[in-house]
Amino acid sequence: MHDFKGLGIAIITPFGPEGNIDYPALRRLIEFWIEGGADYLVVMGTTGESVTLDSEERDDLLRFVVAEVRGRVPVVAGIGGNNTRQVLRALENLDTRGVAGILSVVPYYNKPNQEGLYQHFAHIAQATPLPLLLYNVPARTGSNMTAETTLRLAHQFPVVAGIKEASGNLDQITHILRDRPKNFLVLSGDDNLTLPMMAAGADGVISVVANAFPADYSVLVRAMLRGDLESARLPHLKLFRLVQLLFADGSPGGIKYVLSRMGLVQPALRLPLWEISDGVKQQLDRELNNLGLGKN
């Protein structure tokens, strides 16, 4: 079982002007993330626009990231969906070489009840060859997995290694932290809640803003892990407004715009996602200038 404490990055999938995956840009980004202090990388998550990738692209993307990382940090693969049988087939066909774990999102659109969520993840837990991280993000899925359901899975299946919690509900998160089994990880899924969640006992974050600011966010997370709130507060406050703006007109449009301003990627997205509005771009420009990053 890998330990997914610390800074995980929900990595983007860079695209070129024609919409193909920009592998040279991704190679540069992988070095940037690792040098910046990432503890592990999560590929094919929400930020990676996984639902717009076909199965061949997902296979190629995962193999590329594993090959470029070369074992320097763990790689977690996003494998989830709202069709349990399809998720199980994807797990069965997964090339697990170099993959340390699976991140699987709460089923979206069909809005199962809590027993349906439990059964979905119970089937995955019994099928996965790798540690499983649950991912609760009701703002995107339309379904909130309650603390009771999370804890039921955590206590029953040792392979369920933790949860990326992006409900924004600190009462729910605290309930999980209080009653979780030993070694079950609670990871922030909201960058601006990482500090308060870790102050309550959470183990790290799977971050969006760290795509562009891995070094700053690594300082925050590592300071919190050693109980140094004062040192963690500085990057938290530094990036607070930027994080708000990243999600003001949809993600990953915001983070891709920031990375394009840094000269690292094209801001291209795949439909149905579209570029962020001019108004949000202007606000991001001002905030990046405040952070000392002028236009390239």
What do these coordinates show?
By secondary structure, the chain is of the alpha/beta class. The protein has one domain (6-231): Aldolase class I (TIM Barrel, Alpha-Beta Barrel), CATH 3.20.20.70. The chain has twelve helices and eight strands. The protein has helices spanning 23-35, 55-69, 84-93, 114-127, 138-141, 147-156, 170-179, 194-199, 214-225, 229-246, 253-261, 278-290; strands at residues 6-10, 40-43, 75-78, 101-105, 132-136, 160-165, 185-188, 204-207. It has an eight-stranded parallel barrel, surrounded by five helices. α7 links the parallel β6 and β7 (185-188). The radius of gyration is 18 Å and the shape is globular. The N and C termini lie far apart (43 Å). The model has no long low-confidence stretch (mean pLDDT 96).
Any idea of the CATH class? Answer: Alpha Beta
Distance between the termini: 43 Å
Strand order of the largest sheet: 1-2-3-4-5-6-7-8
Helix coverage percent of residues? Answer: 40-55%
